[in-house]
Amino acid sequence: MSAVTRNQVFTAVHTVGGLLPADMLVRISEGKATKDLRGLAPADYRIPGSRSVRDEAERHWDNLKSLWRELREKLPAEPEASVRPDSTGYARTDWVMPLFEALGFGHLTPVGASEIKAADDDTKSFAVSHRRDDTLVHVTAWNVRLDKHQGAGSPAPQSLLQEALNRTEPHLWALLTNGRQLRLLRDSNALATAAYVEFDLEAIFDGELFSEFVVLYRLLHASRFEGRDGDTQWTCWLEVWRDAAIRLGARFLDDISEGVRLAIKELGTGFLKHPANGTLRENFDRHTYHAALLRLVYRLLFVFVAEDRDALHPPETPAEARKRYADYFSTARLREQSRRRRGTSHSDRYEALCLILNALGKEEGLPELGLPGLGGLFDDDPADAPLRGLSLANTHLMAAVRHLAVVRDTEAQRWRTVDYRTMDAEELGAIYESLLDLVPEPNADRTFELVPRAGNERKKTGSYYTPSSLVDVLLDSTLDPVIDAAQHRGEKKAAEAKQTDPEARETVASELLSLTVCDPACGSGHFLVAAARRIAKRVAAVREQTPEPPVERVREALHEVIARCVYGVDLNPMAVELAKVSLWMEALEPGKALGFLDAHVKLGNGLIGATPSLLRGGIPDATFKVVEGDDASVAREWLKRNKDEHKGIVTLDAEMEESVSVTNTAFGSELRDLLDNSPTDGLGQVRKLAERYHKWAESPAYLNALHIADAWCAAFMWEQTETAPAPVTQRVFLSLQSSDGKGALPETHQEIVRLSQEYRFFHWYLEFPEIFSVPDSSAAPGVDPVTGWAGGFDCVLGNPPWDRVDFKDQEYFSVVEPSIAEISGTARRTAIVKWAAEHPEEGDRYYADRRKVKSSFLFLGSSGVYPLLRKGLSVKGVNSLQTDQLFTERFVSIISPKGRCGTIVPTQIATGASAQFLFQELTQQGSVTHLYDFENGKREKLFPAVHASYQFALISLTGRGLSEPAARFAFFLGHPEELADGTKVFALSPEEIALINPNTGTLPVFRARRNADLTTAIQRRFPVLVTEDRKDGNPWRITFKHLFNLTDDSDLFRDRSGLEAEGWELQGNIFMREGERMLPLYDAKMAHLFDHRWNRYYGLGNDDYEHVPLEDKENAYGVAQPRQWIKERGRIPTVRKSKEITIAGVDLRLAELEWERDWLLGWRDVARTTDERTAIPAFLPKAAVGNSFPLMLPGTPAKLTAALVATQSSLVFDFVARQKVGGIHLGLMTWKQLPVPHPDDLAPHTAFLTPRTLELVYTAWDMHTLAEDLGDPGTPYIWNENRRAQLRAELDAYFLHLYGVSAEDADYILESFQTENGGLKNNEIAKYGEYRTKRLVLAEYDRMAQAGLSLENPLVDGQTYTSTLTPPPGLGPRHPAKTPDTA
Q1: Which helix (H) or strand (E) is 988 found in, with range?
Q2: N or C: which end of the chain has fewer CB within 10 A?
Q3: How far is CA 64 from CA 67, 213, 688, in A?
């Protein structure tokens, strides 16, 4: 983050730390209201009549000018270092106080001796001079420097006021002045450096800068600080403007990203068109050319920032050298001229620019221009080769610079100058990353474009850029505790050594500088920069003995922190370069070289690498699984060979070790000595360190260790064909540790190296041996048995890619052959085969890329590096791996036992089946600190390119040596600010999570703390339906089954027209012919609570259905018509995989399940918490049933089964279900973990439950077999809506009592069945004019309470309880008996 930064529009306005960016100040100064910028009208400033804000400012200006002239007679202008004190106090009384009166503050209230009390410490107070309501105003003496200590133990005024804001509740904004400068501050614990807007009052009034006084007046008027409608400062106009600035900043990133894209286009075209660049055109490669252009643009941006921050020249640079550079060579001059000149065909400007860029990469720099050697980004690199020696016409260079210097403000519809002084490293990173979704496209006319991938709208910057508000939440919970612990350790060391200041402070600082923070998918380095700022601020705070240290001290500490504490890894080479640029920019100090980061920021696939534990086990059999492109017979042969070598059947060389050596302690020691004892202030020193590091990294012992680990990984990626090189089997693997490597053929060694480069294997314990220690013995203290290493990072942070490990043809061909990307399905597969045949070289590349993804999946899912996610692949229905979940398991594996990690990933990691074992392990160990779930677009789109309804979570975890007694959770948040609402956040202990979902350990999705409390209480009372790890865990003896799969078994389905054409006759909803039957195929849409006739189909489309009319439900012979039918008996002939086979029909499938009843039951898998009801079980007549309605077949008597369905149909059961459904499915995993009484507990209640359930279900003749099994030989009950409502109300009230729900909680549960657009409550109000269900249920609840209903005390109809229905439940009106005609 920049230090004090002057924008290019104002002379006397300074912005620091991005509190309100310069562009927002420009908008405020213009005084024009927009949809994003309100509160600028005269009435908003309490200005009466027709005067404008500018008129009012001018009225005060004249008076203040005269006061300033009088002040200057007594206190003339002096250099900052020698300002004399105002011994009479004239400046305060006759200048500062009138200034505040002019700004509408009136008479400021002195705080006095009581001071401002800290909210978090009764003994701490702050000597702030004044206040006005919630606004703190601190006025210091005239000669006091706002950023300088006021003596021992007395912090700088800036530090004092910032800490007061941070540690008090009502005070959000404050003003600080000495009469010469006036600053605006805001509460912010998250900011690592100072953040404020400063007005130079001396410059404004000495220079009579009225326009800048108007800005001051508009921004600092008292009305800006007041909460609207008497509310707190959170609603004041300053806060509104700050929120607007954040939103506009995100849009500005898109605007400037477009400018960068156009600049690259202009440069790319200019180089290609220049007549002197024939070599470029002859040897053109668009990808290397694109990479070189990106590096050139980033060098330009870096110089823009360095110049505008006055950080390019060393402090001691002679004035004449600075002037020579500024007048003839600076990019500031180039940017200014680009706005006024088009340029010529000459190339002198580019030659001058190259002189500067090349000089920054030389140790000696360019003394004539005062330029130091920076190195880093300016070092000569092979990636620069495509542009070496090229010429570029001035016209193209000037156009490119113009695109970078000014951008089109899409919101204000005007051109704006880009202010690089205030641009953050993260913002530059976000701009760069927005370009990564664009592909280079050279044209025949020698023009160059960056175009979006076909089939995808270009992703906006926001899709990559993690909002700082989210980053801050993770840093608060993940990094801050680590920093606090380090400070405590340092203080303890200093105390034990009996040190005194300043030695004690430096001991604490050293402990802080020993912290290590890593982002394994670092991208632009956003998290790394943010983490470095926090650590640096604490280091500076310790050294300066103030929580809010001066900016200069923080910047000095940043240089140390970035050199020592920060680590990053990324798979993309340009992203690695970008992360370095972001860190260099953050640590930029005038005159100092860019630091050496190669040892800490590395290129590699952080997911694919070996661990010592797995290496010790040798080559696993899983290595030889067949993937796309393999020969199965070759794979079997190699598998057998590997098994034999593991068993010792194959003779090994006598000197061959039985396991590989994986210790890295020598590497770690060597690297620590190398890095800790090398100064890096000058470029020559940096390059000497780089030379020593690369010499160490190329040592034979280290390269051999890498080769062994590479070989283990390569074994999974090996092509298993007759023509492939000899594979890495166990014997070959063991032989690799010999110095000569003769145990393997040269072709094998070559293939290991090739695969390592292709997949970019990354072995954490070898890449960072100073972080991970691998002793000789795996049983050594501190060694993680899963990974085989000890140690780890103190903190791991990141927002890894949200993606599946899958090859996407559409995405691939959007670049290679867009016409193929535009088609889908079988047509695309056919087109690919044809294309590959016509383009054999490109076809081979396509199949190789597909194989790369498939082999990666094999490694990730089978190698054992991710044991918990591998276990998840064993769950039925889980066949994919999520990159974000893999990174989460990786994060956990690389933190130290006392470390912490934080990540932003889709919420599915905690609620879905694939990561259930990972999350269960984390919760059971007490590793979860918090999980905060966000709905991306609930309040505003936090990630603009992600769907508004997408849910992601901020997860904070501890290392295995720590344990949280309870984790904090919040769901469906719209913005991090909502975390301050105590009702949104609740705590669950590991035991409570296991109680709620004992089988999977996954999370329910609670919208409020009360939901969590209710669910926990209910689940303490009743067990889940099936507990999988207990022998007695299925007391209902239920068999679960998908009877038919609607996709895989679709070849068995028959439609109406086809059956009728073959002479089948429809009777009800069953087709008959010659004694055979075709049974209807039910799916989830056709059934509902106590209703097997909910919807019916009238066509074959998914949406060709309608509600069954009431008249049909009132007809005992009415049925629900399906889309399709399936044969009842015997087997069904079909063709699958080109083979003629027969498949079992309905009866055979039910016989396999040993189900002998002529009715079925199950539940609707498709379920949403926004529907009227979510958990929907139902009885069905015997039929074919699709997988959207899973069957649940108990082994209990029919009456108990009916009681089970009644239980699962109740509102209280549904309430719990709604806490556990995170998407649109209520799958088996969730259904098993819903609370149901034990059959023995429910049996005494069947006399009450069965009659009501029977009357609700038995309304048609096709359910008569169920009635008979329930002991009722009578005719079906008549469908009566009002009677059914009362019956269901009695059941719902009954189960509220059985589940132990109080009257107050019963009301709450009933109220929860509503949404903004409907739900049970709102739908009933619209239909009946009241929430009928609630009225009926609560009335019966009260009557049953009076009757003493409990789990131990069932109600008895006619004795302890009398229904309001006449006739009573179970004795309701029935249809007439069948006659010969109706039968």
Answers
A1: strand 986-988
A2: C
A3: 5, 10, 59
CA angle 1273, 1276, 1282 (to 5 degrees): 135
- Give the Cα separation of 748 and 507 in Å (integer): 51
CA gap 382, 367 in Å, rounded: 26
Beta partners for 1178?
Answer: 1162
- At 659, is the pLDDT very low, low, confident or very high (cuts 50, 70, 90)? low
**Rounded Cα gap, residues 976 and 469, in angstroms:** 7
Q: Give the bridge partners for 518, in sequence order.
A: 567, 796
Half-sphere exposure of 273 (CA within 13 A, CB side): 20
The model's pTM is: 0.85
Instruction: Give percent above pLDDT 90 in the chain.
Output: 66
Under 8 Å between Cβ of 1121 and 1106: no
Q: Is the peptide bond before 502 cis (omega within 30 degrees of 0)?
A: yes
Cα(417)–Cα(335) distance, rounded to whole angstroms?
Answer: 10
Q: Residue 594 gets which letter from DSSP?
A: P
Is-contact 16 194, C-beta < 8 A? Answer: yes
Pairing verdict, β 1124-1127 and 1131-1136: unpaired
Per-residue DSSP letter, 898: E
- Residues 570 and 600: their CA atoms lie apart, in Å, by 12
How many Å apart are CA 1165 and CA 1229, to the nearest integer? 11
Residue 1280 · residue 1373 · CB < 8 Å: yes
Cβ atoms within 10 A of the Cβ of 876, count?
A: 10
Helices 331-338 + 348-359 axis angle, to 10: 150
* Residue 974, Cβ density class (10 Å: 0-12 exposed, 13-18 middle, ≥19 buried): middle
Say how far apart CA 663 and CA 673 lie, in whole Å.
18
* Strand 1177-1181 versus strand 1095-1097 pairing type: unpaired
CA atoms within 13 A on the CB side of 320: 2
CA 1356 to chain centre: 55
Taking only the tens place, the pLDDT of each residue in 886-900 is: 999 999 999 999 999
Nearest to residue 201, comparing CAs of 228, 220, 229, 223? Answer: 220
Q: How confident is the model at residue 189 (pLDDT cuts 50, 70, 90)?
A: low
Contact between residue 766 and residue 709 where contact means Cβ atoms under 8 Å apart: yes
- Burial bucket for residue 837 (CB in 10 Å: 0-12, 13-18, 19+): exposed
Q: Phi/psi at 1212 (nearest 5 deg)? A: -70, -40
373: pLDDT strictly greater than 80: yes
1216: CB partners within 8 A, 6+ apart:
1015, 1018, 1019, 1234, 1235
Distances (CA, A) of 417 to 262, 333, 663: 16, 14, 56
Strand 109-110: give its sheet, edge to edge: 5-6, 13-16, 196-200, 181-186, 173-177, 135-139, 130-132, 109-110
How far is residue 1299's CA from residue 219's CA, in Å, rounded to a whole number? 59
Helix%, strand%, coil% for the chain, nearest 5 = 45, 15, 40
Mapped onto helix, strand or coil, the DSSP state of residue 1358 is coil
* pLDDT attached to residue 433: 64
Return d(Cα 342, Cα 72) in angstroms, integer: 48
Beta-carbon count within 10 A of 701 CB: 11
Instruction: Show Cβ contacts of residue 1380 under 8 Å, excluding neighbours closer than 6 positions.
Output: none
Rounded to whole angstroms, the maximal C-alpha distance in the chain is 119
Nearest to 584 by CA among 278, 329, 378: 378
* pLDDT reported for residue 1214: 96
The beta strand positions in 236-320, using DSSP E, are none
**What is the spatial distance between Cα 1164 and Cα 959, in angstroms, rounded to a whole number?**
40
Cβ within 8 Å of residue 417, ≥6 positions away:
8, 9, 405, 406
Is residue 778 within 8 A of residue 616, CB to CB? The reply is yes
